Structures are given as C-alpha cells and as structure tokens.
Amino acid sequence: MNKLLTITIFLALSSLLFSCDNAKSITSSYKWPIIEGFPKPQVPDSNPMTVEKIALGKTLFFDKNLSANKQQSCENCHQQKYAFAEPLTISIGSTGEVHRRNAPALVNIAYNKTLTWAHDGITSLERQILLPMFDESPIELGITGHEDEVIERFKSEAYQQAFHLAFPKEPISFELIVKALASYVRSLISLNSPFDKYAYLGDDNAISAAAIRGMNLFFSERLECHHCHGGFNFTQSTTHEQQLIDRRPFHNTGLYNVEVKPKQYGYPATDIGLAEVSTLAKDNGRFRAPTLRNISHSAPYMHDGSVATLAEVIDIYAAGGRNIESGPLKGDGRTNSMKSQFIKGFVLTAEEKKDLLAFLESLTDMNFLTSPEHSKVETQ
Amino acid sequence: MLSNKSYIFIAIFIFIASVASYFFSLASSDNRQMNVQLLWQDEKLGCQATFNPESGNQAWFIEQLQFFISDIEFYSEHLGWQRAMLNNTAFQANNTVLLGTNCRDTQHKNGAGNTDNWSVDFQSTISMNDASRIRFTLGVPFQVNHLNPISQQSPLNLPSMFWIWQTGHKFLRLELAANHEKWLFHLGSTGCKSVSAMRAPKSNCLYPNRFNFELPLGINSKNAKGNLAINVDLAELLKHVELSASSSCQSEQNNKSCQQLFDNLLLNNQIKSAETEPGVFNAVNINHKSKGSTVE
After folding, report:
1. What is the ipTM metric for this complex?
2. Residue A6: pLDDT band with limits 50, 70, 90
3. Closest-approach residue (CA) in chain B for A281
4. How many CB atoms lie within 10 A of CB A373?
5. Is there a contact between A243 and B154 if contact means CB atoms under 8 Å apart?
6. Chain A, 54-93: which have a CB under 8 Å from a chain B CB?
7. Minimal Cα distance from B194: which residue of A?
C-alpha cells in the first residue's frame, strides 16, 4: 500500500511539470553592474557568469603565458586605458605578424550581437576567443602546435586553485580557459558615463549645454549618426535578454572605392568586410558599427585604424565618405555604390562640430577606464 | 494526519488538475491569426523579387520593410466595434504588432531571432467570424511611443525601429535598393517638443503621422477558423513617388516625397466602402485569391 502511495504521489508531482514548461533551466546569481531596469546581456547556458570565472579570466587575460612564445597576453592589444583597445593602427601578434585590422575596444561586448569587425556568424565570445588563441593567419597568441606546452603553464598551484574555484572537479583545459576569458570580458560593462546619468538617471546637469546640443545633433536626421550607432550601446548590433528579434547590421561607410579590377570598384581586396564571409557582392565594404562608448579613448578609428581622430571621422561622414586622392588606395569612397544610404553628408559649423565632440566625450566612463576591478592582477 | 486513501485522492486531484491545465494551455495557444502579405500590384513581393516602379526604368528590391500596427478593432452588426487584444509575443506588445521583414537578416533563420513576421496573433476572445469591417492604426500609440525603449518589451525595444525618446519609434521603415541607387522612407512623429532628444514630449507631437485605416471584410469568403488576411500593396504606397537617394523621406513635412507618401497613405485613411477600391492596405480572406495571390 505504501509503495502504491509513493508511486501515486510521485506521478502526481511529476505531472506538475506539464504546467511549467516555460521554466528557465539555467539561472545565475551574478549581479551585473548595470543601471536598474537595464536588460541583462544574453549569456550561453553552457557558461553562466560567476565571480570565480571572472577572476580566473582576468588573471588569464593579463598573462603572457597564454601566447606560445610568452611575448603577449590578451592585454597587449586590449588595454584598459584605451577602452581595452590599443593606439596602434593595426595590431601586431606575438610573433610580430601584422594583423590587417584595428583591435576593437572591449566595451559592453556582452551585448554584441556579432563579434569581430565583419562576421555575421560569430555570435558568442566562446567562439570568438578561439581566433586570437589559435588562428594561424595571422598568428596572434600562436597556441596552435604548442597546445601541450601552453596548457602545462596553467597547472601551477595558484592556477589549480583558481580553476578549482571556477570549475570544480573539471580538469584544466583550453575549453575552461576560453570560458573563463569569456566571462571576464563579458564583465567589462560600461554604463556609468555622464551621458548615462543624463539619459537614464534623469540628471539634467550631468552633461554640459554643449554636449546636449551635440547630442541633439547626433540624434538628428540631418546627421543620421544614430541609424548605425543607435540604442543604449550606440551600435545597432546590440542584443540582450529582452531583445527577441535578431538583427545583425553591417554598413559600408564609403571609406574606400578602389579600382580593384578595370572599371570595378570597391573596398581594397585585403579587406572587403562582410562579403568575405557571405561571398555576396552587395556586402562589399560592410562592417559592424562599433559602440561609441568611451570612443574618445579608443583611437585610432575604423576597421583598419585608418582614421586618427574623432574630428577626422566627423569630417569623413560630413563629406559623405572619404576621397583618397593618391596612392594604392586611391578612390572616391563618397561614390561607392554599396555605401549605406545614411552616409549622405552634412554641413556642420565649427561650433556644431565642437558640440558633437563634446557629446562623444560625454560617453566616457572614467571608472571603466581606471577601475582596479578590471585591472591587471599583480600577483599570481 | 490524513489517511493513505486521502493522500491518494489528493494526488489524483493534483494529477488531473495538472493534465487539465496542460491541455488548457495548449488550447489557449491556438489563437486566431490575421495574415499579412506584401504585394506589388498583382504579384506577391518578397526579398528575392524585384519590382519596377512607374518612374524610372530600373528594377528595385526591398532591403527592409517593417511597420507597426496598433489599436486593431473589428466591427460586427450585433457587437459594434470591438477592440482586438493581441497576445504578447516577440513581435507583439502593448496591443501593437511589428510586421514585415528585414531582408538582410532573413538568412539567419536558425530558430530564435527570426526577423520576419507577417501575422497578427489575437487572443482567443476575439470573434472575427461575424466581423464585416476592420480598423487599425499604422503607428505606435503616443502613450507608448516615447517611453524608454530599453525597458519596453519586444518588439518595442528594437533599436532599429526607434529614433529617439523625443520622436519615438519609426512607425514604418521601408528601405529599397536598385543596382546603383537607394531610397528610404521612415514614417514617424515629427515636431515633438521636449528639452532634448533624450527627453520624451509631454503632449502629442505637432505631426503625429499616425494613419488610421478602416477596411471592409469579405462577407462570403470566411473560412472555418475565421482567419483573415491583409494585403499591403507597395505600388499604391509608392504611386507618383520618385525613387532616388535624394528623394528619400524621413517624415519631414516640407519634403516633396514625404508629401506624396502621406497623400498616398491618406487616400486610404478615408473609410473604404468596397473591397474593389485599391489602396495600400486591403483586407481579403485567407482563402480569397485576391489579385491572383494566396497567403502562405
């Protein structure tokens, strides 16, 4: 009788599962450093955020042992004071090999819909991080071919303890290294700029009158900036846990219009943007718009770092693209047939340009650029 | 202390209640739909199709057409006008639905995150069987239009369909491309007064630019489920509009293209009395092969 009772109750309780089919299976107690009411980033179920993983990831991020020849860590190309970008035009890997692209800033990339400058299929940090670690063309950290040697370096007592805290009972592996690194860079949230205080905390005095004028210009149809750099993260390529509709925008900004073949124009063959992945001609020169948060600290600009200052960036957009009058990249980007129709040019007075720059400066989150929370761990 | 028999009765009760609630949830998810299809005159139009406008001689294609519809109501003789309540989904919130497609994103149909939506999901309480007319607004209601988008539910949190707090959402976003030309139409409120772009207006904008439509529904062509369809004829919207980069429209009142587009929408703003009148929006039944097309 007792057995029958037990089975009956078990079946009854099991049936309750029918009526809660929408329950979320994975929850994380991690507290995101975001403004109240802001949606949280999407995080893969296979790698929920924990402070232990972030701590381990931070140690790994700054450790040159992660490159095969011990010459570079992730930090070499992603330095905190430059919004986790670097002042070099294009990056140089651990073996001295030159990359074709500028190191992107790591600001709120937990909210990125896609990662890297021009790839619509890389949507998780766990996948993106494999590129600098293992890619052979170009070599960045250069781990490929040196896997055993590199992994052995992370079996010190201190690392074993850190791995144990982050991933209890799991053997140290590159998979865990990637998960920890992903957790750390996901934690690099910047939502504490004067603009945020003005926009989201309702502080009317948080930014200057010039910055407000610049903000009104930024969001005007005259300048069109917000069509690509819109949303709270100042890039339309943003997603979060409440954003259920997929968007993976890429834009051709008329930076180049090189004659690649007789009478055939486009971006230089060294980097044609999204078209390289999609193989579609219409994607020639299309790149992901980066966030503008902390933008005044992450020069140089564009996918190839070919624009040195924000003032020059504004000039190029005002002209409706860039005209390169001589040299191997000669060509008038303003006439690029694949150019986004939002890059149509505008006229700004000197005062308005100053206002626009003042607004862009108001997107600087000094705490993000200096906080020890994100800084190098000195002892290991 | 309850007897074993009592425990068994309680357990059986829980079991029956749970199974019943499961089937009830299945039943309530079987809601009524209204499908929407895009046409160019007589032909169905999609991301892969081109069309030839009256002005110019080149073929154009859609890069993006998305628009918000709100305040949908049905009219029947015995009930009068009844507000249709929408289910909350990725494409529906606050009784507002986002319809259309973003052709650049349609290649990513890997489960969640699809950008296409061509149907309206009504709550099961709506009765469309006896309805003879439908009316709705092209646009987002003022009360919702200027709220902080990041705290809104999908699709009202979609940055690509939002200008800024001051002006609110793009009610309609149409972007077209030809081989060497592009054109766009963004419909939304203008003349909105607030202290800055990041502050919401307290009263309605000078030019709300919401368009109300009232359409007759076919009487003899309702299917068993009562599902309806709305045709959106792009040719009617673009009638007499020149397509070139310099003639794009972002709802400026003094823009010649905008004036023509507004006129084209206004033509249908008047109450339509018969199904035969052409317009941007036309109601048809899902089984009614209107203009040679059927709803998929």
Report:
1. 0.81
2. low
3. B179
4. 12
5. yes
6. none
7. A216
